[in-house]
Amino acid sequence: MALAGSATAQVAILQIHILEGEGSVHAPGSRAARPLTVEVTDETGKPVPGAAVSFHLPDEGATGVFGNGLRTEIAITDAQGRASARAMTLNRAAGRFEIRVVASKEQARAGVVSFQYIAEPHSGAASAAAVAPAAPAPRAMSSGRLRWIAIAALAAGGAAAGILSAARSGTAAPAASNTSTVTIGPPSTTVLKP
Fold this sequence. Notes:
The protein is an alpha+beta fold. The protein has helices at residues 125-131, 143-169; strands at 14-20, 25-26, 36-42, 52-56, 64-66, 72-76, 82-85, 88-90, 95-105, 108-118, 181-185, 188-192. A five-stranded mixed sheet has the order 2-10-9-4-6. Strands 1-3-7 form a three-stranded antiparallel sheet, with no helix packed on it. Strands 5-8 form a two-stranded antiparallel sheet. The relative contact order is 0.17. Residues 1-7, 125-168 and 171-190 have low confidence and may be disordered.
């Protein structure tokens, strides 16, 4: 015989949203200035309090340790479904690193990756990042896409140089008989020549 209603419903699906700290740039050997804060919600978008959230740093390369001296820290979400990894000390290996975040409550689990960076020594990037808000993490590009972006940049630079040269000499730029259209945008790049 089934009970007519349970006091607490089980969470079926968890979602993790990074609220603060994504794309942070840190000075080598420094302590993180901002925490990595996430929000855990259910499938309807309601905050999930009491979920266990683990933060995992890489074992090698650009990495660090949390305040407990380990590469893993566990926090429990508050009433708003939020949890933070606050104390993180970075090593001196420059580069991008991932913080894997896993949330679980009852039988539901979810995961997300936050990308952060350790600046090159003496690059000034870390001090600039401390003043300016961090930009979103760049997406990886294929070598083909990078090649088309470089071609488009060269074409645009050449056109700009021709216009500037014509403007300085006081003559009008000759009309091009063959025009090129360069369109760059996700997820594809198209270069056409009529």
